[in-house]
Each structure stands twice: as C-alpha cells, then as structure tokens.
Design goal:
With 189 residues, the protein is an all-alpha fold. Helices cover 69% and strands 0% of the residues. The chain is globular, with a radius of gyration of 17 Å.
Amino acid sequence: MTPEQARVVADSFSLLESRLPELGAAVYDKLFYVAPETRAMFKGDMRAQHRKLVNVIVEFVKIRRRSQHFLPVTGASGGAVVPGLNRLRSGHTAAGVKTEHYAMMRKAILNSLAAMLGDRFDNKAAEAWGAAFDMLAETMQKPESATPEEAKLLSSMFGRKYESAKADEAAGKAGGGSLDAFFERKRDS
C-alpha cells in the first residue's frame, strides 16, 4: 500500500465516519448476497459482528494515518500491524474461514463502499481500498503475527507493559493476558 493509497483510504473513510454502523451492516448484507453459504459461519448478534468489522477498519485507518508521520504499520514481512489481529485471526480460523472467503469479503467491502460513497468511490479509491484489504487479509492468513522488527517497534512504543504481556503470553500464564488483550486494554484506556 502506497502513501498515496493510504491518503485516499483515510480521505474516503472520513466521509463514512458518521455512518459506521451502516457500513458494517452493508458489508455483511452484501457478503450474504454474493456468498449466501457464508451466513452459517456467523452465530449470535450480527450487530456485534458489524462493530467488530468496523473496529478493524477504524484501527487500520488510524494507524495508517499515523504511519505517514512516524509509525510504520508493516514489518519486514509486509504484514499489517493492527492491535487485536491475533484474536481476530484465531476467531476466523475457528469459524473455518478459508482463503476464498477473503475474496468474497473483499468484494462485499468494495461494493458496500462504492454504494455508500457514490461518485466519490472512483477507480483510485477502489484500488486504494483493495490494497488496504489485501494487506489485512494477507496478514490474517499468516501464522505469525509479529516479526522481531514489529515486536521491537511495539516494545519501544509501549515499554515494560508490552514486554510483560509478551512474556506472559509466551509462558502461557493464565490471567497474564495476551498481546491482543494488551492492545484491547490500551484502546480502552
């Protein structure tokens, strides 16, 4: 994803910030329309699922905005660094999400963005959002989420608390929390 694509995503996203619940609903409506077989993968309250999707998009856009100034969001592997991605990956794996499902979701997201943004969703916006989705989808499908380079970056940003959470996760300590839980706490505070 180029810096110009990151800017296009951020600019078009700013037009949707007041309509995030609508975006989440539109994406899943479109997904179930283009791939009805995926409906069975979702249990429980779909509004919560809508919020989860939107939260990932919000975090990604926020981090990409900051990266234009000082924070890289990709490691040597090219994967996206988004807080909570390990938890999201685990949930997708448990639900049986396969590579082909990412292509279906990509189509649903791009079609929903096009419908909501109208003529503001031009070819440049479609390419930028496609690149953003591809970066996240590729990272979601990798078994390892944090490269040594990414761990060093996170450690420099969050210090001892991050190191402690990382050590607890590696040791499998109950109650110590995972790195994803660490980021959830950071977001909530």
